[in-house]
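If it is no trouble, can you show me the amino acids of a protein and the tokens describing how it folds?
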Amino acid sequence: MQTWSLVSICVLLALVVRWGVSLNSYSGAGKPPMFGDYEAQRHWQEVTYNLPLQEWYFNTTENDLMYWGLDYPPLTAYHSLICAYVAKSINPEWVELHKSRGYESPKHKLFMRATVLVADLILFIPAVVLYCLYLTDGSSRKKVSTLFCFLLYPGLILIDYGHFQYNGVSLGLALWGVLALGLGWDALGSLAFCLALNYKQMELYHALPFFCYLLGKSVQLGLMGRGLFLLVRIASTVLGTFALCWLPFLSDPDHAMQVVRRIFPVARGLFEDKVANTWCSLNVLVKVRYILSSDSQIYLSLACTLLAVLPSCVRLLTKPTFWQFKLALANSSLAFFLFSYQVHEKSILLVALPVCLLLNDLPLVAIWFLHASTFRGLTACAGWFEAMWFTVALSKHDTEDMKHDASVSEGRSAGALRCDLAGLPVLQHLFTVSTGALFRGYLETGSLPQAAFLPPQTGPGLDREMEVLHQRRGHGGSELCDCRSGSSITSA
């Protein structure tokens, strides 16, 4: 009873913070002619309500694709249509064709903000609560503190409730998929993730781990028995979900192909603006966009992304455990962010979701990453919110827990890291190992300069961490490497 009371307080606080952020301005407010992402979402409501479905993704006299043309999968369009019906019943001017462009009013802002909050209440927040309570280890206090940090992650709140988007819908659906797989409901998990993918195509960042986990589980069960039945059931669920989402567009192949072209606009080039991924950084030294053709850029991006994702996916295929699945999600999403084609800066939220799933397991590394992913995009006026979250999040584990996490992070730099985090991009390796070792050194010396030159940890503390790792992963016969000596520890 006490646990649920604390959960209720966390949810209430999350709602208050979300609504408090939403009271401020939004992207593009009062800035014609495009008015920002807020206007994009409103315009999609206008288009889906007033135009026939056959024109939603086509450039026509009534639908100018150069003015916030719809470029997300069908489920986003259906969501916009539902919101448009509600908006029409409140004030028809909000979705009036052409005349509503750039519409701004306090009442309309209240309505648009409320649609984001309702979506979070239906999809994102319940999934977070159930995940933290039923799929994380530890005491009730630890679970509630993880829930607190998860719900109050500043990046998502500032983008959805400040900038204005509906990222909570796709992330919430993806999280329902993770939750279902963690509870053993594989078909339901496939359904939820397919819905996420049909809401935002960027959920492809998470697609390979879902595929490899379910395929590996089917193979493990035996493709001549239960595994085959599971594989057929999952395939039927995926095909049925996609068919239902795309049914109105499948009557005309040209119509379906136009939707695909809008969803994957390869003509825009390798990257846009100043996104912090490999291609934008490399552009300072090598102008890849001018040296290679568009097709070559696509192939290069695809090859680099697959190379970064492949080892963790192979590991997941051979050992389809829920722990490996969570690690593969983090690896895949970061690899896509670093190397894939047409990355947007707000795509970092797709990396943040699987990192949030690791808050309970690797609190130091997770909090550090989430802090960095948010802080890089904050304005000065929002910095206080991030600082408060970071302070509270760090306090969720006492000093011994932090020493534990730092030891685990450093220990994995050799054997355990090679076994369980195989395939992480080089930057992830450096980040995990260096931050863990540096923080351990700071705890021991109280000085960052001294911590930087502290020798590697040895002694019984590392044995304890290896035992914890062994118990967490261990199903008989698994093998872990002793990080100090290079020898093997084989479970009984």
User: Anything to note?
Assistant: The longest strand covers residues 479-481. The chain has a mean pLDDT of 81.
